[in-house]
Structures are given as structure tokens and as C-alpha cells.
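Box S2. Input/output pair 1.
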Amino acid sequence: MTDDKKNTTSTTAADAKKAVVSGAQSVSDTTQRVSRAAVSGLQTGQHAVAANTTKAVEAAGTAWTAVKNRKAFAAGAAAGVAGVAGAAFAIGRATAKPRTGPLTRLARGRI
């Protein structure tokens, strides 16, 4: 072979080797980026699950407090209903009385 052919063959082989190494490096970089994205997605999912779990625990705690104090809530509600009923009765009694004039009031209803 001539020197030109040897140089061309060695240059072509070197170019092919560089292309293979470059391609392998590109695949490696892409794989790393994909794995980083997957790990980031998993971490985001874990954070979302943890936040939702915290919210659920807080809601359950509030519900449990209501269940534990149900007797106090019931007593308060009963007192409120009794108060409203008493006020309605008092207002109704005041409006149910017949109107009287000034002389009847002075005589306390005897006239």
C-alpha cells in the first residue's frame, strides 16, 4: 500500500473510533439525564404523598376531637335550643297579652 492509502485508512479508522466514542458518550449523557428526571419525579411524588398524608392526619385529628367531645357539643346544642325556645316563648307571651288602656293598668286589671 502506498502512504496515502495507509494515512487515509488510519484517518478513517480514527474518525470511526471518535464517532463511536462520541455516540457512546451521548447515550451515556442521555441516560444520566433520564435517570435524573426519573429520580426528580419520584421525589416530587413522595413530597406530594407526604403532604396529602399530613392533611389526612390533621383532618382525622379534628374528627377524633369532635368524637371525644361529643357530649359537650350535645350539651351546648341543647342549651342553645332551650335558650331559643325560652326566648320565643317569652316574646310570644308578651305579644299574646291583650292591649290595655292606662286606667286598666293603674287598677291592675280590675276595671
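Box S3. Input/output pair 2.
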Amino acid sequence: MNDTYLIRTLNEKFVFRVYRTPWRSNYSEVGFEIDLLNHLFKNGVPVSTPIQAIDSEYIQEFFLRGISIN
């Protein structure tokens, strides 16, 4: 299971996806989805493209009240 949020700024909009543990907690599964989206975009398919964080990673892990969220 995951949650998807639409985030709008004055000039742009973003889709933010949060995967809940254990749903797709395997980084290779999420990485495959990211690679697929990048591939589709590079081949002209209109998809949301992943954005790299400051550390150049696409996947970030954070904790909420002691629960791991990937």
C-alpha cells in the first residue's frame, strides 16, 4: 500500500508517493518503478518523473512515531 499526494506551488505541481512498510519495502522494487518512469519519460511518454534529493538519491527513508516509512 502507498499514499500519493499532489503538492502544488505557485509555479509547479509535484506528486509525492509514500510507501508503507512492508509494502514495497524492498528498494529494488521501488528502484524498478523509478527506472521505468525515467525510461518512459526519455522515450516521450508523458509521465511524472522522479526527482532526486540533494544527496542525488531518489528514495528516502524516514520514521514516523517509530514506524519506518519508505
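Caption for Box S3: The first strand starts at residue 2 and ends at 8. Residues 2-69 form one domain.
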